[in-house]
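Can't paste images in this forum, so I'm doing it all in text. The chain is below; anyone willing to post the predicted structure tokens underneath?
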Amino acid sequence: MVGVAVIGLGVYGEVHARTYAAIPGVELVGVCDVREARAEALASELGCKAFVDYAALLAEPGVDAVSVALPDHLHAEVAIAVLNAGKHALVEKPLAIEPAQCMAMIRAADTNGVRLMTDFAQRWSPPIQHAKSAIAAGRLGDIQLIYYRVHDTIFVPTKMLSWGGDSTVAWFLASHCLDNLLWLFDARSAYAGGPGDTISRIRTLKRARVLAGLGYPTADFYLTTLEWASGMVTTIENCWILPESGPTVFDMKMEFIGSTGSLLVDGSHNRMVELQSDKAEYLDTTAYLDIFGVPWGFATESIKHFVAALAAGSTPRVDGIDGLAVTRLIQAMETSAATEMPVEIDWNPYDTDMASG
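Text version of the structure:
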């Protein structure tokens, strides 16, 4: 039996708690949130203890592992405390917003002999898995150009997240895009001298007008170009100012153009399920659903993988070093946007020996 707990009960924290509560061989020991009523209500529903102080939760007997599902800028302090308490940690993406924080988490995990996993759940997404298989099988030939768009409606930074103004759409959405691309093209192996591809240059533009005008001090969008060592070019678009009137809260499209084939992905507007009520809605059929009371979908698969790896004594597929790489690359995006110049990536973002900044 693996005893688990969740710190932070926002949108994804609840997904973590409900998923753990439904996994055979896993005991949800407790949930923690500064909103006491929120913690009490979910704990009562799921049959576990409620906490408002994460230190008290970490002292609770039977807790082997903890999900940290707090706002981006609050991950580091809490995750380090979890790891130093000798608990395994699953930390929502991004792992942290500073490389030094990521390194502190990685070292804490190593020092205490526990596992650290970054929850890049979209690696389990069916469209991303299809893309990985097609690329690995050579069905597209040599990839030349990729267009990757993930947008959110303005509902997300202004209403869904209480902390939208304290983050950016780069941390919230580009972190997924970067991790997916690094994984699709085996970048971690390539940076270590193995097969795959590496990023050689990043150029980013951003603008902060719409949300700033509403009192949210965060950028409306990031437009990023990645140049790869192979000559491949990738354009990534991330914004969170789409109108709320749209049929889905997010817009996800990908196009891979290779020397012998292409692949198109519509992860949001494929109209597999369309609900007509006060407005048309395209319902998500892959990320999170309740199937006969059991959480299902790729958002739950990464969580299930985490506890399965712990039960088996194995290393999770995604670790803290993967989180470190993405944090460093987003910082490179910010540098490029601030200077309006490209940033040369002549360093290994996975290198745990390089200077943290």
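Residues 25 and 145 are 45 Å apart (CA to CA). The radius of gyration is 20 Å.
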